[in-house]
Design brief:
globular; single chain; 205 residues; 0% strand; mainly alpha
């Protein structure tokens, strides 16, 4: 559910930026890049959810890199877009808020990476990946706590960044338009005639 919510949010953001800047090629290119890396980040989230850390550690790490590493790039692209669109589209405040959240995300990534490298370097023993319960007196406990807190901090920075879209999304509306080609869903002789006529017209063009 979280995966599809993230993908939907990124797509709506993409369409909104496109609609607001239809003739600015630089912004449009960045907007497409943002959508691409955003969907890659969502794919990483799918990997994390399906491959647990204690079972398939390296695949889980790949998913984490896609989710948080590529996700940080998505945040960077959106922050740059916010800078390019202010003050015409929105105020400078939203740019500074997103920049602050980007810095928060970056510091959490660095902290988590360093603490994880120290923890799993072999200084505190082997097979720590399988360890689920820690005692405060054990070696490596501090690095474990720092890594865990950094990971949660990183997750909250992502969530906070998406929350900055709320005011932007209040300015748009989405709708689906349904166009009926007939009053029935069955293939009647009349519908076959209409299809043949449509093919003839298309062929003449």
């Amino acid at each position: 559910m979280l995966l599809f919510s993230g993908m939907a949010t990124m797509y709506v953001r993409y369409k909104q930026v496109y609609a607001l800047n239809p003739e600015k090629s630089k912004i449009l290119k960045l907007n497409k890049t943002g959508l691409t890396v955003g969907l890659m980040s969502c794919f990483g989230l799918c990997i994390i959810a399906n491959f647990q850390k204690c079972i398939l550690y390296y695949i889980h790490v790949v998913g984490a890199c896609l989710t948080f590493g590529v996700g940080a790039i998505y945040m960077l692209v959106q922050t740059i877009l916010s800078y390019l669109m202010q003050p015409e589209v929105h105020s400078k405040d939203i740019f500074w808020i997103r920049l602050t959240l980007l810095l928060w995300c970056s510091s959490s990534i660095v902290s988590m990476f360093v603490s994880s490298v120290v923890l799993y370097s072999g200084l505190y023993g082997t097979n720590l990946v399988q360890k689920l319960h820690w005692d405060s007196q054990e070696k490596g406990y501090t690095a474990h706590i720092i890594s865990t807190v950094s990971e949660w901090s990183l997750a909250f920075s992502f969530l906070s960044f998406f929350l900055t879209y709320i005011r932007d999304f209040q300015k748009i509306s989405l709708r689906a338009v349904v166009s009926l080609h007939g009053q029935t869903l069955r293939n009647t002789p009349q519908s076959f005639v209409a299809d043949d006529q449509a093919l003839l017209i298309a062929g003449s063009i």
